[in-house]
Amino acid sequence: MTDRTESQASSRRQFLKSSLLGGVAIAGAAASGRAAAAGEPLITEVQEWNQYPGEGVGTRPYGQPSQFEQHVVRKTVPWLTADAISSVSFTPLHELDGIITPSGLCFERHHGGIAEINSTDHRLMINGLVEKQLVFTMADLKRFPRENRVYFLECAANSGMEWRGAQLNGVQFTHGMLHCVMHTGVRLKHLLDEAGLRTSGKWILAEGADASAMTRSIPIEKALDDCIVAFAMNGEALRPEQGYPLRLVVPGWEGNMWVKWLRRLEVGDQPWQQREETSKYTDLLPNGKARRFTFSMDVKSVITNPSPQSPITHGKGHTVLTGLAWSGAGAISRVDISIDGGRNWKTARLDGPSFSKALHRFYHEFDWDGSELFLQSRAMDDQGFIQPTKDELRSVRGANSIYHNNGIQTWHVGKDGVVENVEIS
Ligand SMILES: Nc1nc2c(c(=O)[nH]1)N[C@H]1C(S)=C(S)[C@@H](COP(=O)(O)O)O[C@H]1N2
Ligand SMILES: [Mo]
């Protein structure tokens, strides 16, 4: 669309206006394409794929993305961690649309590598302050009533590198410790009811069967509220990377608590003070004290396109800006967009289903005049929380934080359409 003229761009605007109002799209649609008179060999000449039949049905028993989409992959930052056994890969947010993360692209965070467990050998135990200790097979779990829920999972360390200033040049790396899938499983409450919770039971400990034996304490109110013991994601069995055959889903709360390869739930009367809730995932405050148990992930958003890995390549004119917003407290009610570094704001268009504690997709269509831009997004949730600037965050939390950074991200767009990670405080 580089050769699009101004008049075409303005008829494109008209088209958008009428289609937004529910008008007829066909007439306007041509205006956003190239002029047919110029000739288009990819239309006028017969192509290879037009002449010969392709692979037959059944040659791909488990479908894979097109060979032309091979660049759409999880990525790692090699210098970030010492060993791949305890490391992280990042979701390519700039390559995705809608709100569901494809299973094979969900970021991974493992502390002891991927446990490979045959579902027939997997067991879940409930012990501690219960009337009867229980051990479930996977088949046992599938005899309880199931639920399907779409939730985001965000690692508390997401955007952690960005606390002191712009650091990583790509939304995949600044915000890619994030995924959102439909989980299927059994309410944790049903299993605790089956075991018979003692009144002294105030906390549960969730333990993983992997080599790191990940363990986290969760307050009983949350366990009885919306936690799910999940065996499926996006309609099929969990992927090994996501905890096959069983993981805990802790909606809206930091990813670390979503214990994968879930093998044991112990009921106790106080938190266990495990490594991951004392030495890690705490927030060092300006007074030198560390805040424990910042469970809920605060309201946050980011523009996924344009972004450093997704520059503007079509020149000035009609431009689609899009991104994601989410909140551990509920659903997203509004997202505002600024193209001038926070001076002026416009309300973005939310599109797609709106689920509580799930990703929300927003769009903002505008005519780029070819000048420099400073793009920002600011999310608000239905509980009244508003995403803060990085400076607002630092004024409360100090400069020593790593975790729980939900500050507003800025992307600089140059006149050449190249996008870079910058900070405007
Ligand atoms: N058993 C186990 N569970 C685990 C982990 C782990 O290393 N072992 N990592 C945790 C962390 S820190 C995060 S952010 C999420 C990551 O989930 P994902 O790999 O599905 O993205 O899983 C959590 N659950
Ligand atoms: Mo994490």
From TrEMBL:
Keywords assigned: Metal-binding, Molybdenum, Oxidoreductase
Domain of life: Bacteria
GO molecular function list: heme binding; molybdenum ion binding; molybdopterin cofactor binding; sulfite oxidase activity
Entry keyword Transcription regulation: no
Cofactor: Mo-molybdopterin
Residue span, Oxidoreductase molybdopterin-binding domain: 111-273
GO biological process: sulfur compound metabolic process
One Pfam family here: Mo-co_dimer
PROSITE patterns: TAT
Span of domain Moybdenum cofactor oxidoreductase dimerisation: 293-409
NCBIfam families: sulfite_DH_soxC (TIGR04555)
Name of the protein in its database record: Sulfane dehydrogenase subunit SoxC
